[in-house]
Write a structure and sequence with these properties.
355 residues; alpha+beta; 5-stranded antiparallel sheet; 4-stranded mixed sheet; 7 helices; globular
């Protein structure tokens, strides 16, 4: 491994914002990861693991420590009855892996097509889209456990998966190096559980479609929202969805609905969007709220703003700073709290900065 000093991080992110890493190294193997961790600990410096840079916001002052960029590659496949167990290195790009799965006739992740980033990042926040989550297919995560100084294998059931989170998200204890997925390989069609996708496929929710058809449709839907990284699309210069959709219980739902109705933002004819979740909880639409507290699609005439295609994405239009982006995010967060009584939280990882 070659350690470099004062390396710009902005070009390694989809937002194109942020300062430098004090030290930087690429890890192409498990041994490289272990060596980098031990080096940072010996120097008593902070450590950050960088994947594809699609779900992070780097502060203008950068990161005063060691940034380790995952560069491991490799996919190992084992047949297991009517499914395959696919063990994937953390440094493999996610969407090409999804594309290969569809080409091979493996099902279970096609609804997450077009999501940028690396495979190793997917367990962190339980990546999901269009009715699928990686929690549905992950059977094992291999990670370097800093508390024991070695590698451990963690069953999918022990990963603490929940909506957009896992046991890996709020701690630096584990560094994911491989992820094993169980995918169906029985030649069948996949169920469609997401209303927007079902509508685009002209299906009822619960209907089925071939994995390739689902992938192609998801990519089309994501491109229309600026959610596929594309150098020709200025609305894709973002960190994806900037805020997590809030999840509330029945009492919380009633309170938010009352506030929305009192403000004239919802009615029987135009109800507030809400989606039932397990355990009697409800997912609300942060994008709907953002638009209704004064930040419509296309908001902002400066260096940063709200995407013209999707209110949940905050975009960098060039020449801006992380400070400007976070100022906008705070204004949105505070306006939603004042109107709806909810505290929405950022979905990207904030590196060297805070909201």
């Amino acid at each position: 491994m070659q350690h470099r000093a004062s390396v710009p991080l902005a070009p390694m992110t989809t937002l194109g914002l942020g300062g430098n890493a004090a030290r930087f190294v690429e890890a192409a193997s498990d041994d490289d990861v272990a060596a980098a961790v031990r080096d940072a600990e010996a120097k008593r410096e902070p450590l950050f693991i960088l994947g594809g840079g699609s779900n992070i916001v780097v502060g203008d002052d950068g990161f005063d420590g060691l940034v380790v960029r995952m560069a491991s590659r490799g996919i190992h496949v084992e047949r297991d009855g009517d499914r395959v167990i696919v063990d994937v290195a953390a440094g493999e790009p996610w969407d090409p892996f999804v594309a290969r799965a569809v080409d091979e006739g493996w099902r279970g992740i096609e609804g997450m097509s077009g999501i940028p980033g690396l495979v190793g990042a997917t367990p962190m926040q339980n990546v999901g889209a269009y009715g699928e989550e990686v929690a549905d297919t992950i059977v094992r995560v291999r990670a370097f456990d800093r508390s024991v100084g070695g590698f451990v294998d963690i069953d999918g059931a022990d990963c603490g998966f929940a909506y957009r989170t896992s046991k890996f998200k709020t701690t630096d204890r584990w560094i994911v190096v491989r992820v094993a997925f169980a995918l169906r390989a029985d030649g069948g069609e996949s169920g469609v559980r997401y209303a927007e996708l079902a509508k685009a496929l002209a299906l009822r929710e619960g209907g089925t479609a071939p994995a390739r058809t689902i992938r192609d449709t998801v990519l089309r839907l994501r491109r229309a929202k600026g959610m596929v990284v594309d150098a020709a699309d200025s609305d894709s210069v973002s960190a994806g969805s900037f805020f997590v959709n809030p999840v509330v219980d029945d009492a919380g739902l009633r309170d938010v609905e009352r506030r929305a109705r009192d403000a004239g933002l919802a009615s029987d004819d135009a109800p507030m969007p809400r989606f039932a979740m397990p355990g009697g909880r409800w997912k609300l639409s942060a994008g709907w709220m953002i638009e209704r507290v004064g930040f419509p699609k296309g908001f902002g005439g400066g260096h940063v703003g709200v995407s013209r295609k999707h209110a949940l994405a905050l975009v960098h239009r060039g020449g801006g700073s992380t400070r400007e982006l976070l100022d906008l995010a705070r204004a949105i967060r505070d306006a939603i709290h004042a109107r709806f009584g909810l505290v929405i939280v950022p979905e990207p990882v904030l590196v060297g900065c805070a909201l």
